[in-house]
Amino acid sequence: MKTFAEQVADLQATRAAKVEESKTIARKAADDGRSMDTGEAEQFDTLQGEIKRLDDDIARYSRLADIEKADKDTAKPVNTKEKSEQISVGGTSKLPVQVKNTQNLEPGIAFARLARVKGLAFTGGLGTRDELKIAKSIYHEDERLVAALTQKAAVEAANTLNSGWAGALVTEGGAAFADFVEWLRPRSLLGQVSPRLRQLPFDTPVLVQSSAGTAKWVKEGQAKPLTEWAYTKTTMKPLKVATIAAATKETLMRASVQADALLRDELGRAVGAAIDTTFIDPAAAAVVDESPASILNGVAPTTLSGGVDYEAVRCDMAQLKAAFLAANNTLRGAFWVMSETLASNLSEMVGPLGQTAFPSLTFEGGSVGGVPVYTSQYVGGDSNGEILALVKGDEIFLGDEGGLQIAMSDQASLVMDNAPTMDSVTPTPQTVVSMWQTNSVAFLVERFINWQRRRAVSVAWGYVNYDACAGVTP
Questions:
Q1: What's the Cα-to-Cα distance from 80 to each of 19, 75, 83, 88, 383, rounded to whole Å?
Q2: Which helix (H) or strand (E) holds 391?
């Protein structure tokens, strides 16, 4: 009987084969300068669904493999000498070895640990720049962390924003990076919906339809009409979103799970906020070679009822679906996007008989009328109300090949602002905070990603002002 680790390896091999098959389909259509035909699209979507199921199975069996390995490890005799071992640093100071059980880590913690060890090595905060010694000292039983650090020779980071250090963090910590991305996925809107989008490699030409063809019924003996439609060719370039998260050296030096989780959460928020806001904000227009347009940008909002109660919700959703279907879109593969606040209001709304109007919906999402719902607090609104959008997932192209880079510095001076306006071309005075003077470390996080709507009719949206208490008699 195979071990769970062997089953994970088999599943990963099957997944890799299906990924390659998906890429082959996408490349064929791209090389021909056309969109996928119906058969190719169905085959591609089927493969993506199978890959998603394999990902789920791999995650489940990986947890079982960890448990299986932990059971074997606990059966080994305890080496008391190893537990009491200390690491000499520079012949004088010593780092006590802390024995911890890190076999079953929360998602994202492995990546945070890797970043933390790199940061401590960079600053020399524990009296050494040897990453392996620091890792063994703080996370003595975390074999995966040690393996991530020993896949290549140790990298000494000697200067500010050292690109070699940043590249090493991603390359050497591949498993930890995947763990971080998997933790981030359900916490960001784009991460939640990405399996439903049509994923393409970067720098691949794609056709974007700008007008549709038409057809007419023809009586016997009469001429058949001609039709035409227009396409524009575009290329999915890797665009970069970047942000900086700062942490004190004291936080990095504390050997606690809370410190690891704090670092993970700060990096996660830094990466997710900018991406999600741009993805869904109607005002987010494309900036050439800088940022993509929102999937709602350039699409006029549908004028909805303006009501606040259950009937208004029912009619507005029907109206958005009608606008969607009128553009010859099928609801297959479509999903709703709304804020957590709006979803919470709808989940508490009651119907005309006092029953829960939307029992399959919570603030975290769910479904309405069989159509999936995805939520994020980055789905905003304005004085007109909150955004409610219906999106055809397979009509949205997504380029995301897992490009993540991290660099760090304890010498930089930062403008502690989430929307800085300074630049090096026309510099203006700014208030800055010195990382060195405040005993802090700054982590620069960059992710390479891009998306594009295939057609304007790929989305339908409008503003709503629903009230969970509307129509309820005290």
A1: 47, 15, 5, 18, 66
A2: strand 385-392
What pLDDT shows up at residue 361? 92
What letter does residue 425 receive in the DSSP assignment?
S
What are the DSSP calls for 144-171, one per residue? HHHHHHHSS------STT-HHHHHHHHH
* Confidence at residue 41, expressed as pLDDT on a 0 to 100 scale: 83
Backbone angles phi, psi at 344, to 5 degrees: -65, -45
User: Distance (Å, rounded) from C-alpha 24 to C-alpha 402?
Assistant: 19
Nearest 5°: the CA angle 246, 251, 254 is 155
Q: Which residues contact 283 (CB under 8 A, 6 or more apart)?
A: 294, 297
pLDDT tens digits, 288-342 = 888 899 999 999 999 999 899 989 999 999 999 998 888 877 888 899 999 999 9
How far apart CA 388 and CA 408 sit, in angstroms, is 39
pLDDT digits over 414-464, tens only? Answer: 777 666 777 766 777 777 888 767 777 777 777 788 898 888 888 999 999
How far is residue 305's CA from residue 62's CA, in Å, rounded to a whole number?
49
Cα R_g (the chain), whole angstroms: 26
Q: Is 243 left (phi over 0), alpha (psi -120 to 50) or beta?
A: beta
- CA–CA dist 370, 351 (Å, integer): 17
Alpha-carbon distance of 52 to 39, in angstroms, equals 20
- Residues 6+ positions from 211 with CB-CB distance below 8 Å: 229, 230
Position 194 pLDDT exceeds 90: no
For the chain, the farthest-separated pair of C-alpha atoms sits apart, in whole angstroms, at 100
Q: DSSP per residue over 203-256, as a string?
A: T-EEEEEEE--------TTSPPPP---EEEEEE---EEEEEEEEEEHHHHH--S
